[in-house]
Amino acid sequence: NAGVMQNPRHLVRRRGQEARLRCSPMKGHSHVYWYRQLPEEGLKFMVYLQKENIIDESGMPKERFSAEFPKEGPSILRIQQVVRGDSAAYFCASSPRGGEGGYTFGSGTRLTVV
Amino acid sequence: SQQGEEDPQALSIQEGENATMNCSYKTSINNLQWYRQNSGRGLVHLILIRSNEREKHSGRLRVTLDTSKKSSSLLITASRAADTASYFCATDVTGGGNKLTFGTGTQLKVEL
């Protein structure tokens, strides 16, 4: 059981480029959550997905950010036209049934926009 | 205060001492969870306490929950240098759609 796998661990993008962050949930987990952590702060919820469905995207910025969790393959968090303020650690968590069993977090992707 | 606000913000103790961190929240919850984060690393789930539970133990960890005061505490007994990390409480808010709301964390430093 490899846990929640996120890649890449570190990502550097120039302003205006696109960033794609991947998350493979734990085996058997069909619920995926994305969180963002700014330096010296706690995690902030972004989006909650189940296979092929976005359940709650109330924490997603209205523009440039999108997420998907296709039937096959990892969940993707996509940030278009990145700006310096997007620099943060992005964490993915998965759960077997909507959080009742607890959440398992990945090690995160640290995005730096230069 | 924010949902899931920890107190103190930073705590420095000697190895062997106990460390107590507090968390306050504002709304009704399904459960409250504590996580540890080492510098630059991911989060490690420590313990989950449900809204109908008052106390829970796991090894050197003891968590209490007082729903009337909307507060929780995490006690680490006989601390070790390896316990140095940031500790976050996170609430699974009733009707919140299973997402977690995190506090800003307590930075614990355990010195030899």
Description:
- The complex is a heterodimer of chains A (114) and B (112).
- Chain A is mainly β.
- Helix content of chain A is 0%, strand content 49%.
- In chain A, strands 2, 4, 5, 6, 9, 10 and 11 form a 7-stranded mixed beta sheet that branches.
- In chain A, strand 7 and strand 8 form a beta hairpin.
- The termini of chain A are far apart.
- Chain B is mainly β.
- Chain B is globular, with a radius of gyration of 13 Å.
- In chain B, strands 2, 4, 5, 9, 10 and 11 form a 6-stranded mixed beta sheet that branches. In chain B, strands 1-3-8-7-6 form a 5-stranded antiparallel beta sheet, with no helix packed on it.
- The termini of chain B are far apart.
- In chain B, 38% of the residues are buried.
* Percent strand of chain A: over 45%
Q: Bin the helical content of chain A.
A: under 10%
Structural class of chain B: mainly beta
Using the CA coordinates, give the radius of gyration of chain B: 13 Å
Q: What is the 3D form of chain A? A: globular
Mean pLDDT of chain B: 91
Helical content of chain B, roughly?
A: under 10%
Distance between the termini of chain B: 34 Å
Annotation, overall tally of beta strands of chain B: 11
For this structure, the quaternary state is heterodimer
For the report, how would you describe the main beta sheet of chain B? Answer: 6 strands, mixed
Mean pLDDT of chain A: 91
Number of helices of chain A: 0
Order of helices and strands of chain B: EEEEEEEEEEE
